[in-house]
# Entry
Amino acid sequence: MIVALAGGVGAARFLRGLTRAVPPTQVTVVSNTADDDVFHGLHVSPDVDTVVYTLAGLSDEERGWGLAGETWNVMDALAALGGGTWFRLGDRDLATHLLRSGRLRSGATLSQVTAEIASALGVRVRVLPMSDDPVQTRVELASGEEVSFQDYFVRLAHDVPIRGIRFAGVDAASPAPGVLESIAAADVVVICPSNPIVSIGPILALPGVAAGLSCRRDSVVAVSPIVAGAAVKGPAARMLAELGIEASVSGVAGVYAEVAGTLVVDEADRDLAAEVERTGCRCVVAPSLMSSPAAAERLARVALDAVGGPGG
Ligand code: FO1
# Structure
C-alpha cells in the first residue's frame, strides 16, 4: 500500500505516473483541502478535484485545473448579471460543486462525498481529503493585508509578495477518517512534487500527521517541486524565498527533513546532493520533469525504489 500526500497540479501529474507504476487499488491519496473555498454558495475543493479529474483522465492538461472540453456558459451568464467570475467555474465542473455542496448540506462529510465523486468518475485510487473539518490557508501579504488562498493565487495571480502563511482551523481539525491509519499501515509514503508550504504544509500541520510520518521517515520519500531554484509550475520558489526559506532543493529538504528520510531531486541539482544530505535527508538524483505520463512513471518508480517500495 502506498500513501501519497498531494496538492494540485504537480501532484496530479506525479500520481498519473504512480498509477502506471503500481495498481491504482494499492494507492491512497491524502489531498490538501486548505485551498477550499466557497464561490456562489458552492463548496469548491480545488486540489481534491484536480487529483480526481486527473486520475479519471478528464482533466484539462494545458490549463492544469478543471475539466477538458469545458464550456463557460454559466460564467458568461453570471457575468451578464454582474456576478463575480474571477474564479472560473466551468459548466461541467459546476456539477461537481453542486453535488458536493448539496451532499455537505444534507450532512455528508467531505470524505464521503469525495469517495462518491471519485467512484462515479471511475477512479480506483482511494482519495481522502486531508480533513473533514474546515482548514483555510490565509496569506499575509507584504502590505500586511491578509487574504484567502484563492484571492492570492487567482484574483491577485500570486503576483504580490507575501510575508506569512497560516492555516486557520488546523489545530482544531482532525485528519479525515483513514488518514492516520493509512499512513501507519503504508509500505511507503510519497510526498508528491507539490508546493511544500501551501499544498503539503497544511497536511503536515494537521494534528498527528507529522508525528505519524517522522516515526517511519525511512520509508517516506519526497519529490522536490523545485528544480534548479525554480518551481516547475506556480509560485512555490518565490513563496519559499519570501518566507525566508532557501528556494532550492536544500530549502525543500529542510522543510521535509523531520518527516521524510529521502528527497528526490532533478539532475540539474546534482551538485546540491551533498548539501541536501547535510539536512538529514538522503538525496536521490533523477530526471524530475514530468513531460509525459511515461516520464512521470519513471520518476514514480525512482521514488518507490529509493525506499524499497513496490513497483520501484
Ligand atoms: N486557477 C486559476 O488560475 N484561475 C481560475 O479561475 C481557477 C478556477 C478553478 C476552479 C476550480 C478548481 O478546482 C481550480 C481552479 N483553479 C483556478 C486552480 C486553483 O486555484 C489551484 O488549483 C489550487 O487552488 C492551487 O493548486
